[in-house]
Amino acid sequence: MQVFKTSEFVRLANKEGLADEDCCEAVDRAEKGLVYAALGKFLIKQRAGGVRIIIFHQEGHRAVFLHVFAKNAKENLSKRELEIYRDFAKELAQVTATQVGELVKRKKWVKIDYEQHRKNLSKRTASIAASRGEGSSRSRRD
What we know:
The protein is of the alpha+beta class. It contains 5 helices and 6 strands; from the N terminus they run βααββββααβα.
């Protein structure tokens, strides 16, 4: 799974205090089918870190973070914004690996290390389970 942020998303995410970790967790939820709102083919809205985010999401293949806005600023995209993002999602579905590489090289997109996030999440989950005694075959009395 490849995960990217557009340069505009980076600017807005920094302004809103949204971390890559929040983005990766939004992708994790989407990969599990937990989507806040489906907006059209490959276009979803998720909640993350107190904001709403618009993501181009091709399950198991690629996610591109496109837009972020504060929940208290507005609930949804305008009809015009939604139309623009839907059209853009159609174009993104046709982007090749070579084109992705060029976008990253030209700093139009920034790659997020999603696989490292998943490894870190697995370690944290295992650590939490171990501290609670989960996964152990012995019984506990409280």
